[in-house]
Amino acid sequence: MNQNEWEIRETQRQRELEEAKGRAQQMEKTMRWWSECTSNWREKWAKVRNERNQAREEAKQLRSQLESAVKESHSFKKEKNELEIQISQLKKEMEKVHLSLMKHAGQQKEPERDINESPDQFSNDGLKNVNSEDGLVTKARSVGENEDNKDNKIIETQSHEVLSKKFDADFEEKQLIQKLNSKSDDDDTEYFTQKLKMLQLRLDDAVKALSGEKDEKKHLLKSIDKLRQELEDCKKDAVREFLTMQETHHAELRIINNSLQEEMNDRESLERRLFETRAELERLQSENACEWAKRERLESEKITLERENKKIKAELLDFQVSTGRSGFNAMRPQDALDSELRLLQQELMEKNKEITELRHSQSKVKKMLSEANIEMGHAVRRAEQYETEVKRLRSRVEELKKELTIAEDELDSASSAVRRLQRTNEELHARLHKYEPDNDYDGGRPQTIL
């Protein structure tokens, strides 16, 4: 009965050890899978970090482009104000010229004209000149009004050329005005014709400069729209990548938590089995101690029985010698002694058999105990390794969580920078629309005056 129980327990322990080995192999597979996942995750984060750095560089470039565009807009605004001042000065000077023309037209006399020119023709020519001058003034005013509504995106080089031409024209105009006061009445018509041609040339130059500025403005608007579209695309791509990264990170965290929970459950079950194995070993040790005590007791009983047998044999011999009886009377107690001796020998053989069986079972128990101790040592070492690996994985998970929070903060800062750039771009676009003219300047181009 005891041997069957030992065999059942041995098979149960073997089965538990096989289960522990299978769980250990499963844990090793899980650890390898975890190492592969961490390496893949590290590669993904490296790619995401590179993309984030590229997005930062693009944002810096866009910021620099916006700053340059703002500086250009300020410079163009300054040039626009200077042009407005120049136009106002031109208006005043043209009014002065108009007044001087009216004055000289009233002071001219009929006898001083050419013989071929009649007074009606002279008056008609004067009126034509005056009307042409009035038309020029009105057209210049319309040009000034259109110029007030022009955008502040004007090319700096063309503006400087226009300003230099206008300053030269102002100087020439002043010289012509001074000459106008010194010339005689016969040269008035030619002088005014030259003055009108000069003003017409200046007006044509201004129209050409404004048309070039308009083309440049269109080009700048197209470039700003393109930059805004690129900024929106970058923002959408960044948001999309952030969402995908967040989803993948949450999925990986769920997988990590599930695997950690499974590892914790396996560890708890392994600890429970180790506790049960330790309790079983303690019980086996106590049973072994009891068997050893029983064996020692049986050996002591065997020794006492052998001593009693020897003592009885000695007493029997002494009794036979002392009595000296023979025949039937001596034969009868000898038979009784022999039967008693046989009984004692049989009991001794049974005791020896029990002792051998106990020794055999004790050797089996020792062997099983040594194997169980070895397996328990291996299981304890594996449990310690698993515990250290779990601690390392937990620390790695915490580091990855910290890196994820840092990356999320950096991505939030990048998205906020993108939003700020978008707001500045929208403000710049609104300013451009604010300074955009109400009507097209090509419809108000002045006609050539000859």
Automatic annotation (TrEMBL):
Protein origin, superkingdom: Eukaryota
Biased composition (Basic and acidic residues): 1-22, 107-116
Compositional bias annotation for Polar residues: 118-132
Record flagged with keyword Oxidoreductase: no
SUPFAM superfamilies the record matches: Prefoldin
Residue segments, region Disordered: 1-28, 104-135, 429-450
Gene3D superfamilies from the UniProt entry: 1.10.287.1490
Keywords of the record: Coiled coil
Name assigned to this protein: CLUMA_CG006313, isoform B
Originating species: Clunio marinus
